[in-house]
Amino acid sequence: MCLAMFFFMTSFNLILPELNNYISILDGADKKGLIITLFTISAAISRPFSGKLADTIGRKKVIYLGIICSFFVMLIYPFSYSVLFFLILRFLHGFSAGFAPTGATALLTDLIPEKSRGHAMGIWGPQGSKNLTFIRT
C-alpha cells in the first residue's frame, strides 16, 4: 500500500507545478483558478461514493480504481490541446484523488489496533512528517 500511495501522490505532485504553464500555452491563462477548483470539487463529490464502495467491494479495489484512473488521466494530459478538454481531465483526475486516499485511509483503520488508531491517523494525515519525529525520539 505504501508503494501504491507513493506512486499516486508522486503523480499528483509532479504534474501540479506545470499545470499553470500548460494552461497558459493552451491560451487559458484566465482559467488558472479552475485547475485546482475542478479537481477539488470532483474529489469532494467522489469521496462519499468511494467510501461506500470501500465498504461494499473492498478497500484495495477502491485504491486500485483510484490509481488506475489517475494513471490513465496522466497519460492523456499531453494530448489535451484545448482548454475545455484540459479542464475535463482535471475534473476526472479529481475523482481519482477521491478514491485512492479514501480507500487507503479506510484500509489503515481496519489494520491498526483500536488503541493506536489516533496516533496512526496523526502520522497518516497532513502533519504526519512532524509526528514521525516524535516517534523516533
Tell me what you see in this structure:
This protein is mainly alpha-helical. It has one domain (2-136). It has six helices and no strands. Mean pLDDT is 82; it is low at 127-137.
**In what range is the share of β-strand residues?**
under 5%
User: Whole-number average pLDDT?
Assistant: 82
* Tally of DSSP β-strands: 0
Structural class: mainly alpha
What is the alpha-carbon Rg in Å?
17 Å
Q: Report the span from N to C terminus.
A: 26 Å
**Parts with pLDDT < 50 across at least 5 consecutive residues:** 127-137
Helix content: over 70%
Number of domains: 1
Order of helices and strands: HHHHHH
Coarse shape: elongated
- In DSSP terms (H or I, runs of 4 or more residues), the helix count works out at 6
Q: What can be said about the biggest beta sheet?
A: none
